[in-house]
Design goal:
The chain has 250 residues and is of the alpha/beta class. The protein has one domain: Metallo-dependent phosphatases (Purple Acid Phosphatase, chain A, domain 2). The chain is built from six helices and 13 strands. The strands form three sheets. It has a six-stranded mixed beta sheet with strand order 4-5-7-9-11-10, covered by helices on one side. It has a five-stranded mixed beta sheet with strand order 3-2-1-12-13. It has a two-stranded parallel sheet with strand order 6-8. Helix 1 packs parallel to helix 2. The chain is globular. The two termini are 27 Å apart. The structure holds fe (ii) ion. Fe (ii) ion binds next to loops.
Length: 250
């Protein structure tokens, strides 16, 4: 199974991010994954027209699409404009999703908190535990804010809180997920705890600098990117698809 993941479009009326997104969607139409997951921060400032244009692109796909909100999303506008594309587990908030495909189960945990940049997994552990217990196929768990430190202090301050409690839960479940797959930090980062892969997807908006320690003055050379996850019975391979800048074309 091939599961594409796009994160952090941050579309706005004056940014090229929506064009980058539309180019990624064109590529995915030709690539034909089995599913696409968006891990939040679709637009900035609740830009309704941005949600509409993203919805229009997503409606042109013939594979399932799952959607999580990020801290920058307006959940009410997002839910309204993307109704019929995403299907969420609850009636309104949180916007968790659960999709049992043929050979993989996709679980999205909405860890966002209204008005905050950081997230928190703690209130959602009971739902996640019971969802994992019911899964009949290998599971990928998606979140917006990562529950692990990526080493960039300003971003770790706004990560997902109570990651330790999440890892305790995952140690206790019969079928731990193959990976915890996040967004939010606008850089691809890979980590691991036990047999569980922890990673963040790059962004379609311009990436953040690699601010490790005092190396803050380095230029950003990174391209926008997204991920394609290849899921087998007991394995997860994640391919990074980097996108040339619009100025380069192609
Ligand atoms: Fe975010």
């Amino acid at each position: 199974m091939l599961v594409a993941q796009i994160s952090d479009i941050h579309a706005g009326p004056d940014s090229p991010s929506l064009l980058v997104f539309e180019r990624a969607i064109d590529w995915l139409k030709a690539f034909r994954p089995d599913a696409l997951v968006l891990t939040g921060d679709l637009v900035d400032d609740g830009w309704r027209e941005g949600y509409r244009r993203i919805a229009q692109s997503l409606r042109s796909l013939d594979f399932p699409v799952c959607l999580l909100p990020g801290n920058g999303d307006d959940q009410s506008v997002m839910r309204g404009e993307l109704a019929g594309i995403g299907s969420w587990a609850g009636t309104f908030i949180p916007m968790h999703f659960h999709a049992a495909l043929t050979d993989v189960t996709l679980v999205g945990v909405d860890v966002t908190i209204a008005g905050q940049s950081y997230g928190d997994i703690l209130p959602h552990l009971p739902w996640l535990g019971s969802t994992l217990a019911d899964a009949a196929t290998p599971v990928l768990v998606f979140m917006h804010q990562p529950p692990f430190e990526i080493g960039i202090e300003v971003l770790d301050q706004v990560g997902c809180r109570n990651g330790d409690a999440l890892l305790e839960l995952l140690k206790a479940v019969e079928r731990p997920p193959l990976g915890i797959l996040c967004g939010h930090v606008h850089r691809p980062v890979l980590s691991r705890t036990g047999s569980i892969v922890l990673q963040t997807c790059g962004s379609l908006c311009p990436p953040n600098p690699l601010l490790l320690g005092d190396r803050g003055d380095l230029p950003v050379l990174d391209a926008s990117s997204f991920l394609v996850h290849e899921v087998g019975n007991d394995r997860l391979l994640s391919h990074i698809v980097s996108m040339r800048s619009l100025a380069e074309g192609g």
